[in-house]
Design a protein that fits this description.
single chain; mainly alpha
Length: about 110
């Protein structure tokens, strides 16, 4: 399930959804918030798997984290996460999700040891 998403470039698409630095003016706080949240959960599932009762169990796939981060990097997603950490919109929830997404990318280095 997660590997299929990675194969079709899901992480790349997530990076595109949060991209606002280009200054198009079309950015939507809710879309940015959702994109950051999806990045966090996607990377978390790759690190830890899915163990929730209401969702199917999925094995952790830590080796695929690097590939997803490379996809995001190709679209400028890592820089966008960093930029969104300073976003003043949406009552701070964008900043909160940006911090969680940033932490998920940093966890790649923690889980490698």
């Amino acid at each position: 399930e997660l590997v299929k998403l990675l194969d079709v470039g899901y992480a790349r698409v997530l990076a595109i959804t949060i991209g606002t630095a280009g200054g198009s003016g079309d950015e939507n706080d809710e879309d940015i918030w959702k994109g950051l949240s999806h990045i966090y959960w996607f990377l978390r599932y790759l690190h830890e798997g899915k163990i929730y009762i209401w969702k199917p169990f999925v094995q952790p796939l830590p080796l695929h984290v690097r590939m997803s981060e490379e996809q995001m990097e190709e679209e400028g997603g890592i820089e966008e996460i960093e930029a969104q950490r300073n976003n003043k919109g949406d009552s701070g929830s964008i900043k909160y999700e940006a911090n969680r997404a940033k932490a998920a990318t940093l966890n790649h280095f923690i889980h490698r040891q």
